[in-house]
Design goal:
With 350 residues, this protein is mainly alpha-helical. The protein has a single domain, classed as ABC transporter involved in vitamin B12 uptake, BtuC, CATH 1.10.3470. The protein is 73% helix and 1% strand. A two-stranded antiparallel ribbon has the order 1-2.
């Protein structure tokens, strides 16, 4: 569905390209960004053969959290809806993947689109009636979802599918076509491919007319509605897309851990996802990568520093991040890039 805001973004671009002095700088900046992306991709591919065993597992989990944080950032960072229960969609994705693989005997690669569809529908159905709630009321509604789902997974009448308290064991995907890779390496490469595809899709979404409508609702819902934006549709759609992303992240985590249980998706997971989004940078897609690294490594680092009070160390680290980088890691990087650009511009003028 095209948005009434779809034509607004072309105006500054056209105006900028009229200036012959600005156009070469834009080309240079785009080329510089492309080199950074290629360098990051090369490093990610090299990690396949450098890291071993548990390190590859950690890298795969970072990618799973990265996918989930992309979804949460679309909801909160780009649409302004606060969720304290996205761990529930992470759990739904993990359990859907486990059930389809174990009971329906689906191949692991076919599970991900199904998980995205299921979580997307659940997210849309949850987001539609929740449209009447805003701010902290919506946060409490999602909090209730995050709290109740682990208990629902233990319900005795669902044990046939969920395994109850004991959970389900998932076999790690086998390496296809006789490739000279270990199962850990193959799963990491598969997760990297999925993460790249979903990142590109999210990037295209936020740059489209629908993405501008999402941001307009976040910035000023009344003004967006006056311009003809269907607020109910876009809010529910964003909730569904966000849930689909988070569910795929949960499915990737289930394949990496090879096990799912209700206690693995407690309320801490939802809070950790929210913290990761803020640390990485709210309203930035690249920030999801830094947030995923924070979720994966900082709690373990805190425990290594102090086994008696790991959460105290975690709290100090989190406070340090918020004081030094109030806009998140991505915000700090953008600020440094802006200062560097100003410095380069002054050197040219001299």
């Amino acid at each position: 569905m095209s948005s009434p805001l779809s034509s607004l973004s072309t105006v500054p671009v056209v105006a900028a390209t009229r200036d012959a002095g600005i156009k070469p700088r834009l080309i240079v900046r785009s080329a510089s960004n492309a080199w950074w992306v290629l360098a990051l991709l090369a490093a990610a591919l090299a990690l396949t053969f450098v890291a071993k065993g548990y390190q590859l597992f950690q890298a795969t989990m970072v990618l799973a959290y990265f996918i989930a944080l992309l979804g949460l950032n679309l909801l909160t960072g780009y649409n302004g809806q606060i969720s304290l229960g996205h761990g529930a969609f992470f759990a739904i994705g993990a359990y859907c993947a486990a059930i389809l693989i174990l009971q329906a005997h689906w191949p692991y690669w076919a599970v991900l689109p199904a998980v995205a569809g299921v979580c997307g529908v659940v997210g849309y159905l949850f987001g539609r009636p929740a449209l009447k709630l805003e701010g902290h009321y919506l946060a409490l509604a999602t909090f209730a979802l995050g709290v109740s789902l682990p208990q629902l997974l233990k319900y005795k009448h669902l044990e046939r599918w969920t395994g109850g308290v004991q959970g389900l064991t998932v076999q790690k995907p086998e390496v296809p076509l006789g490739l000279p890779l270990t199962p850990d390496q193959w799963l990491y490469l598969f997760a990297l491919f999925v993460a790249i595809v979903l990142f590109v899709m999210a990037r295209n979404l936020v740059r489209s007319g629908s993405g501008r409508a999402m941001v307009a609702i976040r910035d000023h819902a009344m003004a967006a509605e006056a311009m003809g934006v269907d607020i109910k549709h876009y809010k529910a759609m964003t909730f569904g897309i966000s849930a689909a992303y988070t569910g795929v992240g949960g499915a990737m985590a289930a394949l990496a851990v090879e096990y799912v249980s209700p206690d693995a998706f407690d309320m801490y997971l939802s809070i950790a996802l929210l913290v990761g989004m803020v640390v990485g940078g709210v309203g930035t897609l690249w920030g999801a990568l830094f947030g995923a690294v924070f979720i994966m490594f900082v709690p373990a680092l805190s425990e290594n520093i102090s086994k008696s009070a790991p959460w105290a160390v975690y709290g100090v680290v989190l406070i340090g991040f918020m004081v030094l980088m109030p806009g998140g890691v991505a915000g700090l990087i953008n600020k440094l890039k802006a200062r560097w650009s100003i410095h380069q511009e002054r050197r040219r003028q001299v």
